[in-house]
Automatic annotation (TrEMBL):
Keyword Magnesium found: yes
Any coiled-coil regions, as ranges: none
Full protein name: Probable 2-phosphosulfolactate phosphatase
Species for this entry: Deinococcus cellulosilyticus (strain DSM 18568 / NBRC 106333 / KACC 11606 / 5516J-15)
Enzyme class: hydrolase
Length: 235
């Protein structure tokens, strides 16, 4: 089986994809489902999200790391972890993560959301679903490869290589080399451009939360996409 890491979302995924935006969209998405959200709806824009505001939705997301005006919540996993969302749809829109998930959902058979928080569970689920290829898609930072997502892809590759034989692409080799060089995730997450931006906004605690490995067995899984909105549920 092929194990491919794309340092940025390219599109054209024939089989199973794990989308990664460890700081913070895929970590926060996992936390919303841990706190009983019925489903996550990844919108295509801030306007679409605001149009979806209702008593049955929680509208969350960020620009520049901070909550968008009119949204109920920002994109902090710690903030998300303070509530319970039973009976609610959480509508998310962020700079990089929700975009990458929408790109993957255009072609892939299976799309999972992966982060350090659910790394082992996401790797196990991808291995159980894939037939020919597992693609780990890093969201990056505004069109540029990011240290934090690439490192997280390395952790996922490490788990997968313990589960079976794979043919690796260069992206996977880069991610694995990084992971094998640096054992503690705090360093690559904090020194990434996304991490430094969060720290500068007083959101350093989110980085330390996102750096905790395999504490959750929740794997947000693509249920489908309707009217351009991509839906994830707890898988
Ligand atoms: C993103 O999608 O760009 C990130 O999740 C942004 C953030 O959380 O600050």
């Amino acid at each position: 089986m092929r194990l491919r890491v794309d340092l940025l979302p390219h599109g054209e995924y024939p089989d199973t994809v794990i989308v990664v935006d460890v700081l913070r969209a895929t970590t926060t998405a996992t936390v919303f489902l841990e706190h009983h959200a019925d489903r996550l709806l990844f919108s295509g824009s801030i306007e679409e999200s605001l149009d979806l505001k209702s008593e049955n939705t929680i509208v969350a997301g960020e620009r520049g790391g901070l909550a968008v005006a009119g949204f109920d919540l920002g994109n902090s996993p710690i903030e998300a972890g303070t509530g319970s969302y039973a009976g609610k749809t959480v509508v998310m829109n962020t700079t990089n993560g929700t975009y990458a998930a929408r790109v993957a959902s255009e072609s892939a058979k299976h799309v999972l959301l992966g982060a350090l928080r659910n790394a082992h569970a996401a790797a196990r689920k991808a291995k159980s679903l894939a037939v020919e290829e597992i693609a780990i898609v890093c969201s990056g930072e505004r069109g540029r490869a990011s240290l934090d997502d690439t490192y997280t892809a390395g952790v996922l590759c490490e788990y997968l290589l313990a589960m079976g034989e794979f043919t690796l692409n260069d992206g996977a080799r880069i991610a694995l080399t990084l992971r094998r060089q640096v054992g503690d995730p705090i360093e690559p997450l904090s020194s990434s451009s996304g991490g430094m931006s969060l720290e500068s906004k007083g959101l350093g605690e989110d980085i330390r939360f996102c750096a905790r490995i395999s504490e959750s067995t929740i794997v947000p899984t693509l249920q489908g996409s309707t009217d351009g909105q991509v839906i994830f549920v707890s898988g």
